């Protein structure tokens, strides 16, 4: 809740730097591994690295936090697999986090990033979750001049969360 409150006070002064997209998913895969041993987090197909590597301009700490939130949510809802992948173009980047869980009903896709939204009524403060993780993700990617979206995973059948933003940030 403190993170959300800090982020609501306005945009921090982001320190954009080159972030290695090949390293970012690896770190996000290693960290949540102990959450649910029966769910494996794998790296999906990553496309678009050029001769200079798979880099994007981003605020590394906040981008990592957004990805960490998405992977943690996916692990809670997956049955056996969570997959991270990216697509890197000349102008834009997209990271996808997919799972093989029940997915998210299309009727709530437009409000899933709204603060305090919880789709599972059994989740209370006592059992964990305040419904802020996805709104934090949306705020972080907004600061990167991007968008966070949700859809259905074509490959795994569950949810697919996508972060899409410019590969290079406009000067401040």
UniProtKB/TrEMBL annotation:
Q: Which residues form the Histidine kinase domain?
A: 1-169
Q: Which reaction does it catalyse?
A: ATP + protein L-histidine = ADP + protein N-phospho-L-histidine
Q: What is this protein called?
A: histidine kinase
- Name the PANTHER family for this protein: SENSOR PROTEIN CREC, SENSOR PROTEIN RSTB
Tell me which InterPro entries the record gives: 2C_sensor_his_kinase (IPR050980), HATPase_C_sf (IPR036890), HATPase_dom (IPR003594), His_kinase_dom (IPR005467), Sig_transdc_His_kin-like_C (IPR004358)
Q: Please name the SUPFAM superfamilies in this protein's record.
A: ATPase domain of HSP90 chaperone/DNA topoisomerase II/histidine kinase
Tell me its EC number(s), please: 2.7.13.3
Q: Which UniProt keywords apply?
A: ATP-binding, Kinase, Nucleotide-binding, Transferase
Enzyme class, spelled out: transferase
Q: Which GO terms describe its molecular function?
A: ATP binding; phosphorelay sensor kinase activity
Entry GO CC:
plasma membrane
Q: Which domain of life is it from?
A: Bacteria
């Amino acid at each position: 809740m403190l993170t959300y409150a800090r982020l609501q006070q306005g945009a921090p002064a982001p320190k954009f730097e080159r972030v290695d997209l090949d390293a970012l998913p690896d770190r996000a895969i290693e960290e949540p591994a102990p959450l649910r041993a029966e769910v494996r987090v794998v790296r999906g197909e990553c496309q678009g690295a050029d001769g200079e590597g798979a880099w994007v301009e981003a605020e590394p700490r906040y981008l990592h936090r957004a990805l960490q939130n998405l992977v943690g949510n996916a692990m809670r809802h997956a049955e056996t697999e969570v997959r991270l992948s990216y697509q890197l173009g000349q102008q834009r980047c997209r990271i996808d986090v997919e799972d093989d869980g029940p997915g998210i009903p299309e009727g709530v896709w437009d409000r899933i990033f709204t603060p305090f939204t919880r789709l599972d009524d059994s989740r209370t403060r006592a059992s964990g979750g305040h419904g802020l993780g996805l709104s934090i993700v949306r705020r972080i990617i907004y600061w990167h001049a991007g968008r966070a979206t949700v859809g259905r995973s074509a490959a795994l059948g569950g949810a697919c969360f996508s972060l899409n933003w410019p590969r290079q940030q406009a000067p401040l």
